[in-house]
Amino acid sequence: MTAPLHEPTAETAPSAAEEAALAGADAKAVQGRSLGRIAWERLKRDRLALAGGIVVVLLTLIAVFAPLIAGQDPDAYHENLIDPLFGTPKGALGGISSDHFFGVEPVSGRDIFARIVYGARISLLVGFLSALVAVVLGTVLGILAGFFGGWVDSAISRVMDGLLAFPQLLFIIALVSVMPNEMLGLTGTGVRLFVMILVIGFFGWPYIGRVVRGQTLSLREREYVEAARSLGAGRFYILFKELLPNLVAPIIVYTTMMIPTNILTEAALSFLGVGVKPPTSSWGQMLSAAIDYYDSDPMYMVIPGVAIFITVLAFNLFGDGVRDALDPKGSR
After folding, report:
1. Nearest-angstrom CA–CA distance, 138 and 123
2. Cα–Cα distance between 129 and 198 in angstroms, integer?
3. Which end of the chain has the least Cβ crowding within 10 Å, N or C?
4. What value does the mean pLDDT take over residues 310-320?
C-alpha cells in the first residue's frame, strides 16, 4: 500500500506571546473610558480653560516661592528713587527699570513687583482656605439636609436662608474692627487673616450647601441607593460611600467658581482698610493707597488692578472649563 502523496499537516498552536498579544488587542478594542478620562479629554479641547488652569498653577507657584521670585524685600524703602519735591518715583512709568520691573511706590520707594508677588500669597491663601471652610460645611450640612429630609432639612434650610440674607461685608468690617491684636497665638495681620478666612468661609457655605442638598434629593432615589438599603447598608455608609462620590463633580465645579469670589472679597476688605495690616503686601491695600496718586503715577493703580483681573479671570475660565468637562450631558 502506497503512502499518500501529501500528509496532512497539523496546525501549530499559538505561542504564549501571541496569545498575550491577542488578548491585549481584544482588551484595547473593548476598553471603555473612565469618567475622569472623558472629562480630561473634554478639558484638553478647551484652550481657554487650559490657559486659565496654567495661569492658576503659575500664580500658586509664585505665591509659594515668593522670596525666590521677588528677589528683594517688599518692605525695603528706596528714598533715592523718589522725587523729594513731589513724592513720586523718578523716571518714566512709575520708575520702571531693570532693577524694578513694575516701578516703585510713591513716597516710600518700595518695589512694586516684590509687593505684587508677596500680595499673591495673601489673596490665594484667603481664597483657597475660605473656600475649603465653605466646602466642608456646605457639603456636610447639604448632604445631611437632602438625605434625612424632614425637620433636619427644614432647620438647615432656614439657617441657609438667614445667612444668605445677612450682610456679610458689613459684618466682617464690624467684626475685624473690634478684634483684639492678639488671639490664639496670632498677632496683627495673622488675626485678621484668620478672621477673614473663617467669616468668608462661614458665609459662603450656604451657596454650595444648596447645590449639594438639591443633588442629594435627586440621588437618594436612585436604584443603587435603594439596592444598598435592601442589602442592609446603614445611613452613614450610604451617605459617604454611595452619595458623596457622586457629588464630587458639582463640588469641584462650585469650588473653582467660589475661589475668585473670595479673592475679590479679600481685595475689597483690604481696600476698605479692614484687611491685612500694613506693611504686609495686599493687592487691595495697594489699590487703596494708589487713589491719591492716580493722576501723577497711574501705573501704581494699574498694576495691582491688572493682577486682580488676571487672577479672577483665570479662575473663572478654568472653572467654566471644568464645569463643561464634568457635564454628563456634554458630547463625548
Report:
1. 22
2. 9
3. N
4. 90
